[in-house]
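Figure 3 (text version): structure tokens given as input.
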């Protein structure tokens, strides 16, 4: 949290993404596509097993193709952030996200390869199980990716929040609130709002107006 001479308080959190377009990280823009395609493949596999309609087996194959291609594209930009942002590699969420997505992409490619020339029989012969494994892994890695973005601030740096300093706020007490990304302590507890901190006290006062 920084204070300027004009009486404003600015707080900048997080780490800017290396692979970005116009300031927006590219990897988070791409990952919803492989997650949707590969998860939907499990649904079409189940539909085929229940109906034995060849349409669903064909749909699964196309979803796997789309998931592998879009997943490879997302992996390129994710790897760029992973190799250049130390904070992304130094916590458990980052390791789970990277390793899990790599495993999911590899399993999806293997699943697609097994279906060439026998798309219908491959569904029952382990294809649906592979789709279920990929969907489960993506659920875990999706959670880990959310942790990286929303808890550790990967790819969200550079967005400033400007606020006027509230008159009459006094910092008292020993509580220390730590920044998410940097780990630097921000001291101060408002006597009325307790552990909400100075910023939380300001927000609470604004809501009451």
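Below: residues designed for each position.
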């Amino acid at each position: 949290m920084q204070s300027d001479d004009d009486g404003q308080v600015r707080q900048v959190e997080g780490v800017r993404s290396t692979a970005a377009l116009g300031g927006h990280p590219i990897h988070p823009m791409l990952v919803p596509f492989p997650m949707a395609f590969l998860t939907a493949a499990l649904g079409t596999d189940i539909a085929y097993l229940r109906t034995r309609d060849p349409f669903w087996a064909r749909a699964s194959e196309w979803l796997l193709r789309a998931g592998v291609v879009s997943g490879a594209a997302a992996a390129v930009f994710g790897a760029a952030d992973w190799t250049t942002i130390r904070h992304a590699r130094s916590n458990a969420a980052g390791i789970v996200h990277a390793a899990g997505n790599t495993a999911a992409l590899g399993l999806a490619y293997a699943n697609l390869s097994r279906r060439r020339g026998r798309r219908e029989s491959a569904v029952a012969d382990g294809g649906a199980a592979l789709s279920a494994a990929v969907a489960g892994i993506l659920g875990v890695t999706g959670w880990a990716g959310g942790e990286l973005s929303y808890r550790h601030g990967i790819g969200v740096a550079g967005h400033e929040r400007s606020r006027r300093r509230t008159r009459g706020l006094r910092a008292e007490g020993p509580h220390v609130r730590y920044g998410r990304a940097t780990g630097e302590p921000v001291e101060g507890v408002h006597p009325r709002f307790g552990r909400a901190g100075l910023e939380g006290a300001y927000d609470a006062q604004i809501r009451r107006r």
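The helical segments are 27-30, 32-51, 54-84, 86-89, 92-114, 119-151, 197-208.
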